[in-house]
Amino acid sequence: MAQPTPANTRLYRHGKLVSEGFPIADVSDHLGEDDAVIWFDLCTPSEEELATISEELGLHELAIRSVLTPNQRPKLDMFDSHMFLNVFTAHYDGDTGRLDLTEASAFITSNALVTVRTSDRFDLQEITSRWDSSSGLAEHGVAFLLHGVLDYVVDTHFEVVQAMDEQIETLEDRLFGEEIPDRAEQRRTFELRQSLVTFRRAVSPMRDIVNALFRRNDVIRDSSITPYFQDVYDHVLRAAEWTDSLRDLVGNIREAHMTMESNRMNLIMKRVTSWAAIIAVPTAITGFYGQNVPYPGSQQMWGFWTSTAIWAIAALVLYWQFRIRDWL
């Protein structure tokens, strides 16, 4: 008989991890314990499951509604008994240029953190490993757990912006090469700019979220865990500013592509016009000699050679003038 899969749960007491993997149904037994801090995770929960959790933790109906409504913007809502956090992790495929955003939420009470995921791409193993690597901060309770979640989210943002930066550097190198950017490369530039616009919607609000935690949460503001949240805030600012600069840079690359295409068309038109001017000289002379009226040298060999020499010399002079002006 297959063993049931352990639940994503943890119990900390007096700053120490004392239990994990216990059924979510046992969470209510620990909520009233002194110095007990609980974390558990829900992946795509039903409305009934959220209603049960709401009764246990006293969650606000607006927070529950936000979880049930997909594609919320990143935000931090403050209620009397808890906070509601909504964020997006990001993953970028450099080969395909595809940006994937994974939405996740969290209910934050004085002694419990409940994460709600919409997909397994929100990597809980990465978060728990961060908690384990900084277990000395567990005495800070829910603030310690919340820091691990935010740190993971912001790190995914950093990984994406770094990957996009590398893509843009490649586009810049090709931009100033000898080859004119082809249609596929121009499409890739446009798709990258779209990804940056979408990514910015997930990154920019994080500044307000972390800043609100400092301003309105005394547990974080007045404890030794403050520098760790300050570090997260610094990373948020860098990621947001980096994203804005990359978006402007991609726009400049797009404009450079259009300018290069325009210059290329002007060069083609200049060359065609130059050759047309060269051809116009012998055309004018031979047309003149084709008149059915007598003219100097008419029906004489010297007249033929004179006209030939005139248009040949004129054509050569024009060709030389166009070459020194870089028109040909």
How is this structure best described in words?
With about 325 residues, the chain is of the alpha+beta class. The protein folds into 2 domains: about 10-260, 2-Layer Sandwich (Beta Polymerase, domain 2); about 270-325. It is built from 10 helices and 7 strands. It has helices at about 25-30, 45-55, 60-70, 125-135, 140-175, 185-205, 205-215, 220, 225-290, 300-325, and strands at about 10-15, 15-20, 35-45, 75-80, 85-95, 100-110, 110-115. The protein has a 7-stranded mixed sheet. Helix 4 crosses helix 5 (about 140-175) and helix 6 (about 185-205) packs antiparallel against helix 9. The longest helix is centred in the last third of the chain and has 64 residues, at about 225-290. The chain is rod-shaped and about 120 Å long. The mean pLDDT is about 80.
Terminal Cα separation, in Å?
82 Å
Percent range for helical residues? 55-70%
Mean pLDDT: 82
Q: Structural class, from secondary structure content?
A: alpha+beta
CATH class of the largest domain: Alpha Beta
Indicate the proportion of strand residues. 15-25%
Could you give a short description of this structure?
By secondary structure, this protein is α+β, with helices and mostly antiparallel strands. It has ten helices and seven strands.
Topology:
Elements: E1 9-13, E2 16-20, H1 27-30, E3 36-43, H2 47-57, H3 61-68, E4 75-78, E5 83-93, E6 98-108, E7 112-117, H4 124-133, H5 142-175, H6 183-203, H7 205-216, H8 218-221, H9 226-289, H10 301-324
Parallel strand pairs: 3-7
Antiparallel strand pairs: 1-2, 1-3, 4-5, 5-6, 6-7
Helix pairs in contact: 4-5, 5-6, 5-9, 6-9, 7-9, 9-10
Subcellular location: Cell membrane
GO molecular function, one term: magnesium ion binding
Family: Belongs to the CorA metal ion transporter (MIT) (TC 1.A.35) family.
